[in-house]
């Protein structure tokens, strides 16, 4: 969540080889969840009103999408939901103490999706490392962020796509540095993961949110 009514995710979670579902009426956001297998009384379900895919999304390029909730959620202790800060400048591999990737993906490549939210600490790398590993299949550009352990000890896995990469800054703030996009499948040694870099897409995010609000004012006065 980046505000009380806007969510970010990966575009390929909405449009991929198996399905293309950019219709907002088909989506409901479940906020404040931790254990998917039980009702914790902290969840809030809000229908999605609008989905905005990046217009140049293709083959993990511009892998980003916005979701507008049908109503804003209130940030209270009951819901346990907060908005994450967006970065104001490009994050480099020497600017953060550590980053945390979270998701309900598999903990083993052939395992099941997790019931409880998983997290893992990962280091940020120069994009040249991911370019060397994945450049034959996906052209690594400035809009990508390379992060993950090179020894294969931990990382994101199948089912984590669209989840956040949050980084602790030296001043104590946490920022949303990236969105889980793709990787080796499940933390293979020598292969870090690739995220959509938030600082690169900040202008796109702000423009789309502003344009949507402007269109609503014109439509309803």
TrEMBL record:
Domain Peptidase S1: 1-210
InterPro entries: Peptidase_S1_PA, Peptidase_S1_PA_chymotrypsin, Peptidase_S1A, Trypsin_dom, TRYPSIN_HIS, TRYPSIN_SER
PANTHER family linked to this entry: ACROSIN-RELATED, HYALIN
Catalytic activity: Selective cleavage of 103-Arg-|-Ser-104 and 124-Ile-|-Ile-125 bonds in Limulus clotting factor B to form activated factor B. Cleavage of -Pro-Arg-|-Xaa- bonds in synthetic substrates
Top enzyme class: hydrolase
Stored PROSITE patterns: TRYPSIN_DOM, TRYPSIN_HIS, TRYPSIN_SER
Keywords: Disulfide bond, Hemolymph clotting, Hydrolase, Protease, Serine protease, Signal, Sushi
Stated name of the protein: limulus clotting factor C
Gene3D superfamilies: Trypsin-like serine proteases
A matching Pfam family: Trypsin
Taxonomic source organism: Hypothenemus hampei
Its EC number(s): 3.4.21.84
Gene Ontology biological process terms in this record: hemolymph coagulation; proteolysis
GO-annotated molecular function: serine-type peptidase activity
